[in-house]
């Protein structure tokens, strides 16, 4: 196991340096490296790490979500609030329903199974989007109108919408019944309760740590532990735990002192350097290239048909915003990547024994292979072309 850790970290660092030299987003190199050393290629990652892959990837995701929450500020959130709300729902629903209709036409599926496939593909990837938006924010790209913050806020809720609707279609497919509209009521419930949970934990932690005068590395340890606890509580309460982590970090930032905030930023930036290596290599390791043949050209038509529909949804959701056409086009590109959610839910239909389950998994994997590196490249390449750079952003 230790040898596998050495291989992952060492090759991950080398991969990041190589991709930087040739001008590619390092995410692309890490995902490709994960496939090369993963179980479907050279098989250099021991089974113990593969078995813990989901937990390790989640820890890395928690780190980046804390960084995302710390990076938010009230004034920018107020500026993007209405537009972020529209972007949270409209593009996801456009994409999910478009893929549903296309799946019914191309694969002759019934509405329930097609809907499962539609909303497996509809979720965007926080693993790709969040670090990309944080990098743009730090460099000031699009911050004159808060575009990176807008994408961060919308993407986090987008996944809640997609997974909730997926759950409804899975239930419908399993029971052979009608679509459960009551599940739609869970969307605002999951969002609101997650936000409140994160805020309560942040306020409580801030009060306790100040009372017992905890600082430095101990302070960071408690922050990380609290973030993990919020994710676990989210699973128990069946709410959006990842959104709760961002809420937690945001409220903690507002209540903590400047020195504590800087310590959190610096410490989690250091954690992320290693965390992203594990996150994207282990995502790549889950990719079985052989499923491309199973997914076929029709799978690609579904994926890109959904991406185009999402782009239309973005343009409609931002039509009355103060964003110009270039900024709106950038958001369309920023919503292309898919990875973590598809890796997590792509096999649910198969595990439930539903019809077309293997094909759904194959198309989900294909969406990761195609859109994760493509989306990372699009964000990295077109941000300087479509956004205005603002210096000295918070």
TrEMBL record:
**InterPro entries for this protein:** Cation/H_exchanger_TM, CPA1_transporter, Na+/solute_symporter_sf
* MF GO annotations: antiporter activity
User: According to its record, how does it sit in the membrane?
Assistant: Multi-pass membrane protein
**Subcellular location(s) per record:** Membrane
Q: Name one GO cellular component term.
A: membrane
Q: Which UniProt keywords apply?
A: Membrane, Transmembrane, Transmembrane helix
Gene3D superfamilies with a match to the protein in the record: 1.20.1530.20
> Any idea where the Cation/H+ exchanger transmembrane domain is?
7-374
The processes (GO biological process) annotated in the record are:
proton transmembrane transport
List residues traversing the bilayer. 27-46, 58-74, 86-107, 114-134, 146-170, 191-209, 221-251, 271-289, 295-317, 360-379
Pfam assignment, any one: Na_H_Exchanger
The name under which this protein is listed is Cation:proton antiporter
Give the organism, scientific name.
Proteinivorax hydrogeniformans
């Amino acid at each position: 196991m230790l040898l596998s850790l050495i291989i992952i970290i060492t090759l991950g660092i080398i991969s990041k340096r190589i991709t930087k030299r040739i001008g590619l987003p390092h995410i692309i190199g890490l995902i490709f490296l994960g496939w090369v050393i993963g179980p479907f290629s050279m098989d250099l990652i021991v089974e113990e790490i593969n078995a813990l892959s989901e937990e390790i990837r989640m820890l890395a995701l928690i780190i980046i979500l804390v960084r995302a929450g710390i990076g938010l500020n009230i004034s920018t959130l107020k500026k993007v609030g209405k537009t972020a709300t529209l972007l949270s729902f409209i593009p996801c629903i456009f994409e999910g329903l478009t893929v549903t209709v296309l799946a019914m036409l191309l694969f002759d599926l019934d509405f329930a199974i097609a809907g499962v496939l539609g909303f497996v593909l509809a979720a965007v990837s926080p693993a790709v989007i969040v670090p990309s938006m944080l990098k743009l924010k730090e460099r000031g790209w699009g911050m004159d109108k808060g575009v990176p913050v807008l994408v961060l806020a919308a993407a986090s809720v987008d996944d809640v919408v997609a997974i909730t609707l997926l759950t409804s279609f899975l239930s419908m497919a399993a029971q052979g019944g009608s679509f459960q509209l009551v599940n739609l009521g869970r969307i605002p419930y999951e969002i609101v309760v997650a936000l409140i949970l994160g805020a309560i934990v942040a306020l409580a932690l801030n009060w306790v740590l100040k009372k017992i005068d905890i600082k430095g590395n101990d302070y960071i340890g408690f922050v990380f532990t609290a973030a993990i606890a919020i994710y676990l509580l989210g699973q128990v309460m069946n709410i959006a735990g990842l959104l709760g982590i961002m809420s937690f970090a945001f409220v903690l930032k507002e209540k903590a002192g400047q020195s504590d905030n800087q310590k959190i930023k610096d410490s989690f930036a250091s954690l992320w350097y290693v965390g992203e290596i594990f996150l994207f290599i282990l995502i790549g390791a889950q990719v079985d290239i052989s499923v491309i043949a199973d997914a076929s050209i029709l799978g690609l038509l579904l994926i890109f048909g959904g991406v185009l529909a999402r782009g239309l949804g973005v343009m409609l959701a931002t039509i009355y915003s103060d964003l110009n056409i270039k900024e709106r086009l950038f958001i369309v590109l920023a919503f292309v990547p898919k990875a973590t959610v598809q890796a997590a839910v792509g096999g649910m239909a198969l595990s439930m024994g539903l019809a077309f389950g293997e094909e759904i998994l194959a198309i989900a994997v294909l969406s990761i292979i195609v859109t994760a590196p493509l989306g990372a490249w699009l964000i990295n390449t077109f941000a300087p072309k479509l956004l205005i750079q603002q210096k000295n952003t918070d």
